[in-house]
Structure formats: C-alpha cells, structure tokens
C-alpha cells in the first residue's frame, strides 16, 4: 500500500436522489436516497466519497455534515480511525482520501491498496417487502436479472420465499430478514428457505439477540449484517453466523473494509459485499472488495430514478469496475 496522502481541506454536502419506486423493508419505506458527499483537495486534485447515514445506527445526515465540516488540519486515512468512529461520516471521508490518493499518484485505487484489479461482478437485485403475490410479480418483472435478494418481514416469510421461487425457478435467491424473525421462527423459516433453494438468509434475529443461532442446524447459510460492523465484531459471530455482510458505511470506509474482509476470510466466514441505497459513487469503492465476496449486493444504482454521470456500467446485473472519472 502506498503512502497515505494528506488532504488539506474537507467539504461536505447533502444530496437526495429519487428512487425509481418506493424501497420497502421491515423497518419502513423510503422514496429517496439521502447521501452525504465528502470532497477533499490537495493542490489541484480533488477526491470524492459518498456515504449514507443510517437511522438504525443513530446516524443522521445533519450530524454527518457537522462532523465532517468540523475537521481541521492535514487528514490521512490512518488518522481517521482516531478522529472518527466507524460509520457513514468516516466512510465518506476515507473513500474521498482513496480517490484523492489515486488521482495524485496517477494510479487506480486497487493498485494502491495492493488488491487485484476488480472484474465485472454479478450483483443481487433487491425485491422490496410486500405480499407473496406482489413479490412474485416483481421477480417476474426482471427476467434478465438472475440473482435476486428478497426483503423479508417476519410473519408470512415462508410464503414469500416460496412464491418468489415458484415465479423464478431460474434465479439464484438470497433473502434479508432485517432483524424481523422471532427465535421460534428460525428453524421453520430456514427449513422453508432450504426447501426453496435459497443460498443465504441475512440477519434473521435482532442484533444483540442472536445467541439463538448457536447450535441451530441449518441447510442455508446465515449472514450477519446489523451484528457485524468492523473486524473487531468477528470473534463474537463464530458459531452463530456462516457469513458476514461487509458494508463501507458500517466499517467506516474502504480501509477498514479491506481489513475486515481479510480477517473474515482468515476466520472462515463467507462474505457478502453490500451497501446502502445510494449512487454509483458509493458502490464504486465497494467493488474493490468483490474478489473476496461470495455474494455482491451493490444494486443501489439500479434502484434510483437517475444516477451520477458517469455511472457504474451495469448490464443484466453485471457491474463493471468504475471509470476513474467516477472514483478511484
């Protein structure tokens, strides 16, 4: 990894990007992606990073802006871990510093990070929570997308999973319960997932209440999301989870995400690379981790009514690496 570039100035702004249609999960619905963009400069070069403050983790756009605008002095990626907690604000700034470093060096960010050049990766495409009939219809409406991710909500999830499988016998399927299951639903719902050929169930139980996962026999991998933020969380997940969802907004940026991916692999976890609903600028850094991933879930740009220019190129669910004009 190269020298850690210093940025002299940080600017932060809030943006709202309309969604193509409402995005519904167990915790509610939204019609816009609210993001924070950090910009850092050194000389005539500028780097950008995007993040999504998430209310589930006590974050707001205004707090992230205040945090970023309150920083002063030369900033480096190494210094960020001491200045800011893991979360959206640090992610936006960390990714902006990676982008700046790439521009100053005239190299791609993955080269600087010592990673293999990213290849096109198939992303999940998210189906919002709804009735079994609605989710089946939504699945049939995207026949060109072959890896679908269902948002689940608790009661009735067995019917939802079966309906989507019946509608799309050709697709690979994963599902995200967003902490909505009760302990007594674990075994019957996991059995239903296995019967319908699902590959993965994300975060079935509330974070902090997932001890019931220990010792549960299952034919479907269970993935930690809300229970897994940084590499320090991994030890507590052993025996409870088979996989972890690594999101830059949770890790606080690409720097810690790389460390978490390496540690998760070493500890035997499967890996999903995910992101919040945001633009191509947020998804681009996460694509550098696709080489670690068993599943890639970076469909935020596909859920928007419009995206940045230039956007990530996405064709039939396959995402190509970012152009340097976008990021890195």
UniProtKB/TrEMBL annotation:
Cofactor comment: Binds 1 Mg(2+) ion per subunit.
Bilayer-spanning residue ranges: 271-293
Active site: 151 (proton acceptor), 247 (proton acceptor)
Keyword Translocase: no
Key words, A-Z: Isomerase, Magnesium, Membrane, Metal-binding, Transmembrane, Transmembrane helix
GO molecular function: metal ion binding; racemase and epimerase activity, acting on amino acids and derivatives
Designated name of the protein: Dipeptide epimerase
Organism, as annotated: Hyphomicrobium album
């Amino acid at each position: 990894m190269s020298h850690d570039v210093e940025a002299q100035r940080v600017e932060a702004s809030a943006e709202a990007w309309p969604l193509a249609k409402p995005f519904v999960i167990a915790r509610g619905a939204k019609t816009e992606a609210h993001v924070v963009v950090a910009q850092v400069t050194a000389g005539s070069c500028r780097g950008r990073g995007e993040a999504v403050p998430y209310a589930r983790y006590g974050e707001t756009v205004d707090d992230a802006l205040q945090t970023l605008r309150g920083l002063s002095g030369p900033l480096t990626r190494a210094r960020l871990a001491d200045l800011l907690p893991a979360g959206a604000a640090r992610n936006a700034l960390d990714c902006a510093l990676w982008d700046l470093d790439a521009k100053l060096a005239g190299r791609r960010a993955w080269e600087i990070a010592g990673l293999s050049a990213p290849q096109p990766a198939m992303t999940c495409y998210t189906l919002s929570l709804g009735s079994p009939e609605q989710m089946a219809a939504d699945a049939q409406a995207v026949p060109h997308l072959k890896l679908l991710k269902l948002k689940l909500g608790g009661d009735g999830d067995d019917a939802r999973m079966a309906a989507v499988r019946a509608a799309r016998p050709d697709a690979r399927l994963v599902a995200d319960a967003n902490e909505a299951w009760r302990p007594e639903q674990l075994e019957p719902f996991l059995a239903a997932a296995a019967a319908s050929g699902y590959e993965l169930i994300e975060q079935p139980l509330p974070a902090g209440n997932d001890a019931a996962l220990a010792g549960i026999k299952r034919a479907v991998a269970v993935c930690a999301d809300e229970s897994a933020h940084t590499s320090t969380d991994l030890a507590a997940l052993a025996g409870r989870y088979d996989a972890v969802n690594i999101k830059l907004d949770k890790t606080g940026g690409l720097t810690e995400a790389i460390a978490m991916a390496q540690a998760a692999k070493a500890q035997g976890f499967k890996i999903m690379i995910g992101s919040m609903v945001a633009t191509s600028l947020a998804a681009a850094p996460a694509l550098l981790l696709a080489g670690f991933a068993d599943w890639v879930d970076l469909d935020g740009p596909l859920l928007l009514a419009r995206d940045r220019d230039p956007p990530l190129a996405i064709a039939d669910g396959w995402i190509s690496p970012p152009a340097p004009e976008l990021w890195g």
